[in-house]
Amino acid sequence: MDAAIVTVGDELLVGDTENTNATWLCDRLDARGVRVRRVTVVPDEVGEIARVVNEYHAEYDAVIVTGGLGPTHDDVTMDAVAAAFGRDLEANERAAGWLAEEGYSADDLAAETTHLPENCRPLENEAGVAPGAVVESVYVLPGVPREMKAMFESVADEFEGTPTHTVVVDVDEPESALLERFAALESEFDVSVGSYPGESVRVKITAASADEAERAAEWIRTRSTLVDSA
């Protein structure tokens, strides 16, 4: 399964808010064997959101959109997702029912709070007020991290892929000195190799099987100067 993540918010683009939602979602999806192919940040603009959602919906198995839910002037994500699918927004009775059960009457909320794309599947917000929605394979979640995480967990079982296994080896050599060994590693084993230099070089070996990942890791260990863990 291939997925894309779209995070919405002017505050992300100017650096006022750290994009922790994308990092968290990537980690959770990777743990479920889902390949995240794109992470994109877009402004609070209907046209920009709709364009990206439309493109990614055509290309990937699932799209997760976070941020911009609610009744305020800059909460335009539901309008944009509806536009991407050529649908109208309409009052959603199921969402209104959930909120009523939580003690929110129609008088307590702005009318737009429960306006969702027509023929969508509403998602209950267990940690907040603004509901989410699923439109075909596009999942629209809140931007507040606590609310986003709770809502994702309610649909997490719908994201399944091929699990991978990773082994990390810390090598005490310059990254440039390891290039030939990386090429040989990928040639001899069915693995992908990533290298991340810092005080040492973290060599990340990923494979479909734990045995293959460990065999490849042992190969690089025996041919490299390792970081002293003592």
What does this protein look like?
This protein is α/β, with parallel strands linked by helices and 230 residues long. It is built from eight helices and eleven strands. Strands 2-1-3-8-7-6 form a six-stranded mixed sheet, with helices on both faces. Strand 7 (132-135) and strand 8 (138-141) form a beta hairpin. It is elongated, with a radius of gyration of 22 Å. The mean pLDDT is 93.
Helix content: 25-40%
Total helix count?
Answer: 8
Return residue spans where pLDDT drops below 50 for at least 5 consecutive residues.
none
Write the element-wise H/E pattern from the N-terminal end onward.
EHHEHEHEHEEEEHEHEEH
Largest sheet, strands/sense/barrel: 6 strands, mixed
User: pLDDT average, as an integer?
Assistant: 93
* Strand portion: 25-35%
Structural class: alpha/beta
Radius of gyration: 22 Å
Shape: elongated
Distance between the amino and carboxyl termini: 41 Å
> Which strands sit side by side, in order, in the main sheet?
2-1-3-8-7-6
The total of beta strands comes to 11
Describe the structure concisely.
This protein is an alpha/beta fold.
